[in-house]
Design goal:
The termini are far apart. The strands form two sheets. A five-stranded antiparallel sheet has the order 1-2-3-6-7, covered by helices on one side. Strands 4-5 form a two-stranded antiparallel ribbon. It is of the alpha+beta class. Strand 2 and strand 3 form a beta hairpin. The protein has four helices and seven strands. The protein has one domain. It is 34% helix and 28% strand.
């Protein structure tokens, strides 16, 4: 079973949202399970998660590049973009703003469920 694209994407996405590291638990065809670790010195600073995603439907490399631009330029506050999309666009390698907006929408459609006591509860996501 292929897992590389989902693993790479989730690593970037969850670190953008404050993860220090990720402990991978299980990869299934339609789901990925793991734990977000916020602080290695405090075991209570963890959150289990489940992402409903098949390998072939994983967001594109362009979305990972966008995540890196957002993170490198500190354009995020917890889960909310801090600056207008036009500012983010200027820092990317994208030439066409309409194509850029499609990439942003792809990122904002990502939803990774938090698991509390075995139940999917809240979720990780990015908004503007």
């Amino acid at each position: 079973m292929e897992i590389a694209k989902r693993k790479l994407f989730l690593d970037s996405f969850l670190k953008l949202l404050g993860a220090e590291s990720i402990t991978w638990k299980r990869f299934e065809i339609h789901k990925v399970y793991g734990t977000v670790v916020y602080g290695k010195n405090d075991p209570s600073e963890q959150q289990d998660f489940c992402w409903h995603m098949m390998e072939e439907n994983t967001p594109s490399g362009n979305v990972v590049n966008l995540i890196n631009v957002i993170k490198d330029n500190n354009f995020i506050d917890i889960d909310r973009l801090r600056v207008p999309l036009t500012e983010i666009f200027k820092k990317t390698d994208e030439n066409n703003y309409d194509d850029f907006v499609i990439i942003v929408e792809e990122l904002m459609n990502v939803q990774v469920f938090m698991i509390d006591e075995g139940i999917e509860t809240d979720s990780y996501f990015i908004h503007d």
